Amino acid sequence: MLSRYMYLLPIHLTTVFMTLFAVIVADLHGVLWVVGKIKLLPKWRMEKLHQLVSLGLLTIITSGILMLWPVRDFLLYETAFQIKAIFVSALIINSALISKHMSIASARAFADLSWSERRPFLIIGLISSLAWVGAFTAAQFLGL
Length: 144
Known about the structure:
Elements: H1 9-34, H2 43-68, H3 72-75, H4 79-107, H5 115-139
Helix pairs in contact: 1-2, 2-4, 4-5
């Protein structure tokens, strides 16, 4: 039995793609900063993109919970759902890490950072990419 909240599916999917677009824009800025094409990231733009992604994640999670609540007993034992939940959890944690490190990228060039200061940015970027692709891929195997 599917949820009576399945009318949220278009909102859920639209939010996924809009949030992914904001992630791609933010990640492109990050890549340009890392390779030295942009010396400093514009603080106001990165904060707005981060807010959009955070709001998008909240909307995706809320609509997903509402739609899938009636089939939770099935989903909790579904491997694809468990994998997706792990990736979404990684995105939430990564969002907090991004928020913590964002001010550095608007104040200092990547080339001016020491290796220990660079490492978190590289890890954050890798986690973001893997978790978004992983969550989207796992969702394709839910069979709903």
